[in-house]
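A.,

Following up on our hallway conversation. Structure tokens first:
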């Protein structure tokens, strides 16, 4: 009777043990699925943030290449103006020489022939080159500068679209969280105002760009000077000339040749040859250096200035984009933060692949096997930054600070800041940092 009363007790123990094993298995299964989905979601967030930052870095590099093309074109305009000025100078010198050589008939014939031949060359240059100068200038203003402005504006839109596309390609179940829009607004504010700026004409904003163009001139454009009798203390023959960007609206070139005779009580300048060329948008009477022509050959320079026939095909300096406050030489960076969400109903946990109603315990109660997630989703937060760094060290070992004339902008993943994590918390109804342990 005792044995029959105790029969079946082992079955209860076995059932309870089996329920514990099943519960433990479901727990381990759920944890494994959550960890796997969390890793996949975080990889998708990394890819989305990095892709957006790469797009912005490439936009900055495109703008840098655009600035370099504008510089090269402006230097080409300076070369053409220089050639026209030098050609006029040669023509005037040959003309003066033919007059002086009239006392020597054989030499006069040769000089007259050279002068007339060069007049044809000079007429061709003075007619054709201003057309090329105008075409290049209009290309700078209407095409390159416009393309640069469009690239800057479209970078934000393209980067935002890229976040969603990369996230879906990496993890199709992922969704862009609401806080990403807030992070993108922060990125847009930095992109528009804290990283680069548009430098416009008329207010002195293009002074640095003008100085850069002046330093970028080739040797022929910058200074065409020579001293023909450098060791003679009483007679000097000085050739001076150069092409300068005057203000923001004109390129002017000037070439002069003069004989200087020093007396005991003074000196005199005898002009021999002169020439000048100018292409402008607006007339300016400001003088340039022109290789020291005004300073050392003033009489010849006045003659060149009187004979100047300006052309008006130049469109002025284009309004370009450069970094903010370049004189401060600051290390500029811009963060791009992305948060992705994976809704709970998309997770392949036990409640979706095994039992959606839960597990019945031996006492008849129901054990819910669905994981409990804050805001009913998994979240992943990732940040990337746009920064400036040369791929190789400079030859002079000097540090190169960020600029929009060197295409060395790059992107990399960086740790998420506490400020960004705290900013994402209120949008989930949380007061504490939800990424304090796992980002």
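Then the amino acids I'd put at each of the 439 positions:
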């Amino acid at each position: 009777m005792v044995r029959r009363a105790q029969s079946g007790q082992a079955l209860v123990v076995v059932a309870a043990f089996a329920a514990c094993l099943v519960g433990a298995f479901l727990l381990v299964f759920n944890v494994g699925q959550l960890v796997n989905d969390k890793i996949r979601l975080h990889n998708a967030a990394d890819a989305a943030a990095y892709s957006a930052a790469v797009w912005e870095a490439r936009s900055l590099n495109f703008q840098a290449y655009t600035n370099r093309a504008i510089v090269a074109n402006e230097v080409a305009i300076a070369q053409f103006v220089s050639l026209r000025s030098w050609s006029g100078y040669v023509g005037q010198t040959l003309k003066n020489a033919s007059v002086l050589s009239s006392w020597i008939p054989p030499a006069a014939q040769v000089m007259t022939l050279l002068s007339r031949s060069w007049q044809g060359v000079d007429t061709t240059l003075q007619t054709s080159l201003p057309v090329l100068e105008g075409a290049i200038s209009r290309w700078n203003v209407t095409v390159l500068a416009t393309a640069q402005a469009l690239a800057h504006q479209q970078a934000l839109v393209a980067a935002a679209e890229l976040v969603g596309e990369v996230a879906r390609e990496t993890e199709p179940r992922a969704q862009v969280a609401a806080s990403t829009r807030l992070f993108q607004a922060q990125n847009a504010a930095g992109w528009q105002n804290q990283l680069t700026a548009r430098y416009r004409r008329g207010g002195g904003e293009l002074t640095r760009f003008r100085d850069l163009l002046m330093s970028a001139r080739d040797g022929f454009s910058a200074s065409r000077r020579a001293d023909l009798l450098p060791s003679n203390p009483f007679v000097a023959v000085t050739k001076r000339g150069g092409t300068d960007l005057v203000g923001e609206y004109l390129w002017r070139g000037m070439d002069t040749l003069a004989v200087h005779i020093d007396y005991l009580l003074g000196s005199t300048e005898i002009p021999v040859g002169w020439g000048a060329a100018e292409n402008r948008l607006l007339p300016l009477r400001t003088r340039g250096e022109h290789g020291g022509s005004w300073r050392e050959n003033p009489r010849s320079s006045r003659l060149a200035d009187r004979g100047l026939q300006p052309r008006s095909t130049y469109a002025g300096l284009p309004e370009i984009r450069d970094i903010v406050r370049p004189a401060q030489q600051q290390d500029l960076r811009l963060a791009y933060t992305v948060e992705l969400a994976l809704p709970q109903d998309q997770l392949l946990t036990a409640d979706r692949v095994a039992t959606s109603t839960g597990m019945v315990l031996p006492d008849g109660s129901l054990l819910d096997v669905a994981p409990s997630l804050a805001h009913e989703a998994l979240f992943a937060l990732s940040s990337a930054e746009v920064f400036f760094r040369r791929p190789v060290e400079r030859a002079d070992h000097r540090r190169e600070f960020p600029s929009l004339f060197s295409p060395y902008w790059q992107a990399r993943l960086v740790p998420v800041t506490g400020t960004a994590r705290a900013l994402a918390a209120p949008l989930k109804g949380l007061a504490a940092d939800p990424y304090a342990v796992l980002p």
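The mean pLDDT is 86. Curious whether your intuition agrees with the design.

B.
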